[in-house]
Amino acid sequence: MSKLNALERTFRSWSEQLASGNSLRIKNVRLAGIERLEISREVQGVTRYLRFTPVEDPPGAWEFEVLLGEFGNTDTSLDFDGRRGGDQQYVEDLALRWLFERCSWNDIGS
Predict the structure, then answer these.
(1) pLDDT tens, 34-48?
(2) Around Cβ 25, how many Cβ atoms within 10 Å?
(3) 3-state SS, residue 52
(4) CA torsion through residues 31, 46, 19, 3, sign
(5) CA angle 80, 84, 85 (to 5 degrees)
(6) How many CA atoms lie within 13 A of 87 on its CB side?
(7) What is the rounded CA–CA span in Å between residue 76 and residue 36?
(8) Distance between CA 95 and CA 59 in Å, rounded?
(9) Using CA atoms, how far apart are residues 105 and 80, in angstroms rounded to an integer?
(10) Structure pTM?
(11) CB-hemisphere CA count at 13 Å for 29?
């Protein structure tokens, strides 16, 4: 099983546990010939997302590069994109904190 398939299974399990009003959107995306997994969740009109890209020959402990962001804020200066990276457990924890606990970028840390 690929790294992305394992992540997708975890996120689909989370999605099944959510109430329909706060559902997790999960989709596979191919960009620049590379398969990626994107998950997003909207809460009170603001959408937060993460896009996971498997890292070939990972430097250090990175298995995934993660693009995460937020958009739809009434104050558009709060909309942004950022990057993180890490192993599978790290990116699962990142998704949990970013999408469900609604932690800020600064609270997530590096």
Answers:
(1) 899 999 988 888 899
(2) 13
(3) strand
(4) positive
(5) 155
(6) 3
(7) 27
(8) 21
(9) 10
(10) 0.82
(11) 16
Tell me the C-alpha distance between 89 and 42, whole Å. 23
Residue type, 1: M
Residue with token string 């890490």: 86
pLDDT tens per residue, range 10-38:
888 887 776 555 678 999 999 888 899 99
Calculate the CA 104 to chain-centre distance: 14
The residue among 82, 91, 96, 109 whose CA lies nearest residue 37 is 91
| Pair of tokens at residue 36 | 């990626």
The C-alpha angle with vertex 108 and arms to 106 and 110, in degrees rounded to 5, equals: 90
Specify burial of residue 39 (Cβ count, 10 A radius: 0-12, 13-18, 19+). Answer: buried
Tokens 């329909």 sit at which residue? 20
Q: Give CA–CA dist 30/21, Å, rounded.
A: 28
Place of tokens 């706060």: 22
Question: Is the separation of the CB atoms in 63 and 54 below 8 Å?
Answer: yes
